[in-house]
TrEMBL record:
Organism: Corethrella appendiculata
Family in the record: Belongs to the RRP40 family.
GO cellular component term, pick one: nuclear exosome (RNase complex)
Sequence intervals crossing the membrane: none
UniProt record, GO biological process: CUT catabolic process; exonucleolytic trimming to generate mature 3'-end of 5.8S rRNA from tricistronic rRNA transcript (SSU-rRNA, 5.8S rRNA, LSU-rRNA); nuclear polyadenylation-dependent rRNA catabolic process; poly(A)-dependent snoRNA 3'-end processing; regulation of gene expression; TRAMP-dependent tRNA surveillance pathway; U4 snRNA 3'-end processing
Exosome complex exonuclease Rrp40 N-terminal domain sequence ranges: 28-65
Domain K Homology: 153-200
Main subcellular localisation: cytoplasm
InterPro entries tied to this protein: Exosome_RNA_bind1/RRP40/RRP4, KH_dom_type_1, KH_dom_type_1_sf, NA-bd_OB-fold, RRP40_KH-I, Rrp40_N_euk, Rrp40_S1
Location of the protein in the cell: Cytoplasm; Nucleus, Nucleolus
Protein name, UniProt field: Exosome complex component RRP40
Classification via PANTHER family: EXOSOME COMPLEX COMPONENT RRP40, PNAS-3 RELATED
Keywords in alphabetical order: Cytoplasm, Exosome, Nucleus, RNA-binding, rRNA processing
Length: 236
């Protein structure tokens, strides 16, 4: 079955517009949820077909299991230490590896203080279905930036769709919530969010607000942030 941008698609459907572009010898970039089969671009995941101009196609679908992609920022918990390698649970089919030299300024003599149970924010250096995912806590210049160990705070898991929504530049949820509560947040593309506020009550309020926003409209998001501000101020 041929499908167009905006249609609900199922595995096996053929992307009509991508086929037309390919037939006219134009470059087509296929994103998540699509694969090439002979001369056709075929749907591999159910969802809504979307297009990012000029010629990038992908399927927007509800997903909980994270599939590692190179270059993405992820958050995980250190589960084990084996020699010079840390094992980090990022919610994928297998744990990712994190070397002790993958931190800023780390050497054999100056090792980072990482323990089992610590939460780390890292970037995927290697993400291949045939290889173990590998993480680093530095950028291409060897600087940690906002990567590294996340101290204190609270870590929870949500759907990947929610991560995409709150990180979308068009979504003003975080901006509205920051006006009501002062908090720190790190969101990983693997569906894990770390938050930290002044008190445990505020931290729980921020976490509940993030989980509640997935299916809300802009008006409902604004009201939600106002209600949280009133509750914490003691007016509710």
């Amino acid at each position: 079955m041929l499908v167009k941008v905006g249609d609900t698609c199922l595995p096996g459907d053929i992307v009509e517009e991508a086929k037309e572009l390919a037939d006219s010898n134009k470059k087509v970039i296929i994103g998540p949820g699509l694969r090439q089969q002979n001369e056709n671009i075929v749907i591999s995941k159910s969802g809504i077909l979307k297009r990012k101009h000029p010629n990038t196609f992908y399927v927007d679908n509800y997903q909980k299991r994270y599939v590692p992609n190179r270059g993405e920022i992820v958050i995980g918990a250190v589960t084990a230490k084996a020699g010079d390698i840390f094992r980090v649970d990022i919610g994928a089919s297998e744990p990712a590896s994190l070397s002790y030299v993958a931190f800023e300024g780390a050497t054999k003599k100056n090792r980072p203080d990482v323990n089992v149970g610590d939460v780390v924010c890292a970037k995927l250096l290697i993400a291949n279905r045939d290889l173990e995912p590998e993480l680093v806590c530095v950028d291409s210049h060897g600087k940690k930036g906002k990567l590294g160990i996340l101290n204190d705070g609270f870590l929870f898991t949500c759907s990947i769709n929610l991560i995409r929504k709150i990180l979308n530049p068009k979504c003003n949820f975080l901006e509205l919530l920051a006006k009501e509560i002062a908090f720190e947040m790190a969101a990983g593309m693997n569906g894990k969010i770390w938050i930290n506020a002044k008190t445990a009550k505020q931290t729980i309020a921020v976490g509940n607000a993030i989980l509640a926003v997935e299916y809300k409209t802009e008006e409902e998001i604004s009201k939600l942030c106002d209600d949280i501000g009133n509750y914490l101020a003691g007016f509710a």
